[in-house]
């Protein structure tokens, strides 16, 4: 059983080659606390406490072992769980979720010519895996029952199935119908639920999804993804019910007013909704 219904972990990424001349902005002082190093002179050093703090040297496997393994056990016991990767463009959200190999495709990185991607130098297979792989591997290894998955995208307030290549006559992707009733709540009747037999099956699904994600250029990252993606892993539990692990790779959290944008892009509104939901959950927790 998890100690609380909501937990927050911070992962610090290393400085890139292009940032080598800059001073460190933050320091992990313990496994639960970070300290800001670049505060105004008139202020004292500021530190913040979290449920867990991962240093730039911690691998995806270390993040999984310390933070997600208990969630996997809860899912196997029948409890739904959701993991959100949140942060500005370029902070390593997609690398954390997808791992080294698929991260390069999503970020538009030329693996042969980049000097900034510190993670590309690590050739250990276990270090190349992202949290999506590690969670799926743990669920499959449990042998509790069939594991199925869905992979979807939220973009411009519409939902798309990343496992389908359906498009209209103009070549635009066709969004899914979003419905609601008293029995199912909010649901997507046409969302594909695929059997997950192995990690190779997951690789095929994620690779297809990575190629079809909606992206546009930004000032902070030329190929930064402007959509949210959700990998849903469903597993049958011992009591005959189905529990779901949602792994969410959010779009960059930077303020859209810093960029050239149009009314079609609703990333900032999505983040406001997320903030409202998280704030409400914390208020309920405090009561």
TrEMBL record:
<dbReference type="InterPro" id="IPR001752">
    <property type="entry name" value="Kinesin_motor_dom"/>
</dbReference>
<dbReference type="GO" id="GO:0005874">
    <property type="term" value="C:microtubule"/>
</dbReference>
<dbReference type="InterPro" id="IPR027417">
    <property type="entry name" value="P-loop_NTPase"/>
</dbReference>
<dbReference type="GO" id="GO:0008017">
    <property type="term" value="F:microtubule binding"/>
</dbReference>
<dbReference type="InterPro" id="IPR027640">
    <property type="entry name" value="Kinesin-like_fam"/>
</dbReference>
<dbReference type="GO" id="GO:0051231">
    <property type="term" value="P:spindle elongation"/>
</dbReference>
<dbReference type="GO" id="GO:0005737">
    <property type="term" value="C:cytoplasm"/>
</dbReference>
<keyword id="KW-0547">Nucleotide-binding</keyword>
<keyword id="KW-0493">Microtubule</keyword>
<dbReference type="GO" id="GO:0005524">
    <property type="term" value="F:ATP binding"/>
</dbReference>
<comment type="similarity">
    <text>Belongs to the TRAFAC class myosin-kinesin ATPase superfamily. Kinesin family.</text>
</comment>
<dbReference type="GO" id="GO:0003777">
    <property type="term" value="F:microtubule motor activity"/>
</dbReference>
<feature type="domain" description="Kinesin motor">
    <location>
        <begin position="5"/>
        <end position="287"/>
    </location>
</feature>
<keyword id="KW-0067">ATP-binding</keyword>
<dbReference type="GO" id="GO:0007018">
    <property type="term" value="P:microtubule-based movement"/>
</dbReference>
<dbReference type="Pfam" id="PF00225">
    <property type="entry name" value="Kinesin"/>
</dbReference>
<dbReference type="InterPro" id="IPR036961">
    <property type="entry name" value="Kinesin_motor_dom_sf"/>
</dbReference>
<dbReference type="GO" id="GO:0005875">
    <property type="term" value="C:microtubule associated complex"/>
</dbReference>
<keyword id="KW-0963">Cytoplasm</keyword>
<protein>
    <recommendedName>
        <fullName>Kinesin-like protein</fullName>
    </recommendedName>
</protein>
<keyword id="KW-0505">Motor protein</keyword>
<feature type="binding site">
    <location>
        <begin position="87"/>
        <end position="94"/>
    </location>
    <ligand>
        <name>ATP</name>
    </ligand>
</feature>
<dbReference type="GO" id="GO:0007052">
    <property type="term" value="P:mitotic spindle organization"/>
</dbReference>
<keyword id="KW-0175">Coiled coil</keyword>
<dbReference type="InterPro" id="IPR019821">
    <property type="entry name" value="Kinesin_motor_CS"/>
</dbReference>
């Amino acid at each position: 059983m998890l100690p609380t219904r909501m937990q927050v972990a911070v992962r610090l990424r290393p400085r890139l080659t292009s940032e080598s001349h800059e001073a460190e902005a933050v320091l992990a002082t313990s496994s639960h606390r970070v300290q800001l190093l670049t505060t105004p002179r008139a202020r004292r050093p500021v530190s913040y406490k979290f449920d867990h703090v991962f240093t730039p040297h911690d691998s995806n496997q270390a993040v999984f072992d310390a933070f997600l393994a208990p969630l996997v056990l809860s899912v196997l016991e029948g409890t739904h769980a959701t993991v959100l990767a949140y942060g500005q463009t370029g902070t390593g959200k997609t690398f954390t979720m997808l791992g080294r190999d698929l991260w390069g495709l999503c970020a538009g990185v030329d693996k042969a010519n980049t000097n900034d991607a510190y993670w590309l130098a690590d050739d250990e297979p276990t270090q190349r895996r992202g949290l999506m792989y590690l969670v799926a591997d743990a669920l499959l290894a449990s042998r509790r029952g069939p594991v199925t998955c869905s992979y979807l995208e939220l973009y411009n307030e519409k939902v798309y199935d990343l496992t389908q290549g359906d498009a209209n006559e103009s070549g635009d992707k066709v969004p899914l119908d979003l419905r609601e009733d008293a029995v199912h709540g909010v649901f997507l009747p046409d969302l594909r639920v695929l059997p997950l037999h192995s990690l190779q099956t997951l690789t095929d699904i994620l690779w297809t999804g990575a190629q079809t994600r909606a992206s546009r250029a930004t000032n902070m990252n030329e190929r930064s993804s402007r959509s949210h993606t959700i990998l849903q892993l469903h597993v049958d539990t011992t009591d005959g019910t189905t529990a779901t692990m949602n792994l969410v790779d959010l779009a960059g959290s930077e303020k859209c007013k810093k960029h050239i944008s149009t009314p079609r892009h609703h990333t900032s509104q999505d983040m406001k909704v997320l903030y409202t939901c998280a704030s409400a959950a914390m208020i309920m927790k405090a009561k």
